[in-house]
Amino acid sequence: MAHWGYTETNGPTTWNKNFPIAEGSRQSPIDIVPSKAVFDSDLTASDSLRVDYTPEDEAHLQNNGHSVMCQITKTGYLTGGPLGSQQFRLEQFHLHWGADDNRGSEHTIDGKMFASELHLVHWNTKYDSFSDAVTKSDGLAVLGIMIKPGLTHLGFSSVSDNLSKMSKPGSKATVPVSLDPTRLLPNNISAYWTYEGSLTTPPLLESVQWIVFKEPVEFSHQQLTALRSLTDSDGHHMQDNYRPPVPTKGRKVRASFQ
């Protein structure tokens, strides 16, 4: 895949050269405007959003040059809500963040940007694998969690405490600590916005049902600083590794709450 990044020469404004789908009709992220979101009672009826994650015995961490990613090895599932009876398996989670606390999230809420955004990536188990599902229009479901500065997030400490082991791009670390993906979620997972979108990094495939939680979580200054101390594939501090919002192009954003 063509080299891409977040600089002026290889950043989001240039991605359409190698990935024409960047101009597509269901790209992500978007600016979510709560007043324009449509309340959908079906999202809260009998089939509410449910997660069933298994804690990891160890954290499989990787600096992929664009973000820090944690590969999931245990079986964990997401179902309900906009996904109905379909089961989506947790594959990995990663983050996007800014150079300071005023920017960093990919989705914005009424134009407001958060310091970071956590993505938990799941694939539809009706397909054989993640790599198969990612090419299908109903292949992926991603949970988006907004992060604001505040208290130390104990559920993320097993990652943030070990980021120094992965400062260089391509580096990996298997850390013998328990990691429970459930603890990364906000307390209230019944309030969210959902829409049909895409991966926010190349190849930008339009295969994602996005579920963006209304309630943010807090990371401490130290945790955010640890993320900003990583090195990216261009040899710079890994900062501002986010794609800005793109046009909604007539898509409907549904809300699970009024």
TrEMBL record:
Domain of life: Eukaryota
Segments of skewed composition (Basic and acidic residues): 231-240
GO molecular function, one term: carbonate dehydratase activity
Residue span, Alpha-carbonic anhydrase domain: 2-257
Principal subcellular localization: secreted
Keywords: Calcium, Disulfide bond, Extracellular matrix, Glycoprotein, Lyase, Metal-binding, Repeat, Secreted, Zinc
UniProt catalytic activity: hydrogencarbonate + H(+) = CO2 + H2O
EC number: 4.2.1.1
Swiss-Prot/TrEMBL cofactor(s): Zn(2+)
Entry-linked InterPro entries: CA_dom, CA_dom_sf, Carbonic_anhydrase_a-class, Carbonic_anhydrase_a-class_CS
GO cellular component, one term: cytoplasm
Family statement drawn from the similarity comment of this UniProt entry: Belongs to the alpha-carbonic anhydrase family.
Role summary: Reversible hydration of carbon dioxide.
Protein's UniProt name: Carbonic anhydrase
